Amino acid sequence: MKISKSTTVRTNVRQCSNSPYFATSNGLIMNEEHIDVLNSIQNYYSHQEFNKISLRDLSDALEEKFHHKGGMKYLYSLFPDGPISQGCQITGLKPPTISIDKGFGSAA
Q: Is residue 26 assigned to a domain?
């Protein structure tokens, strides 16, 4: 699935009251690149059935969207604890199953 910037997302990251607090408490300094990734995650969720979010499909969609910037390597440079798990936590979305493994750390 391709993520498009022209599609409207349900909630803008700038309007999430917990986003700045969560990001700074985890050592992230948010900029436009972070917000673009977070909006892409929200956009993906808004076009899927909430209980059918696939870690693999979300990862592939983000890889495709940010391929020109370096793909997952670029995303991990922005979100060192995992772009999907950290991104979902910042935006208040439930991370896909197995994206956070308490025994091992972040998987995605």
A: yes
CA atoms within 13 A on the CB side of 81: 14
- Using a cut of 0.85, tell me whether the model's pTM lies above it: no
Whether 59 is covered by a domain: the verdict is yes
The rounded mean pLDDT for the chain is 76
Instruction: Find out whether 19 and 34 touch, Cβ atoms under 8 Å.
Output: no
Residue 1, in any domain of the structure: no
Per the structure block, which two tokens stand in for 54? 């696939």
CB of 61 closer than 8 Å to CB of 3: yes
Of 14-18, 66-70, 101-105, the least confident: 14-18
* Stretch (H or E) spanning 100: strand 100-101
Q: What is the DSSP string of 11-72?
A: S-GGG-TTHHHHHHHTT----HHHHHHHHHHHHHHHTS-GGG--HHHHHHHHHHHTGGGTTH
Question: What is the identity of the amino acid at 33?
Answer: E
Range of the domain at 28: 13-106
Residue 51 lies in a domain: yes
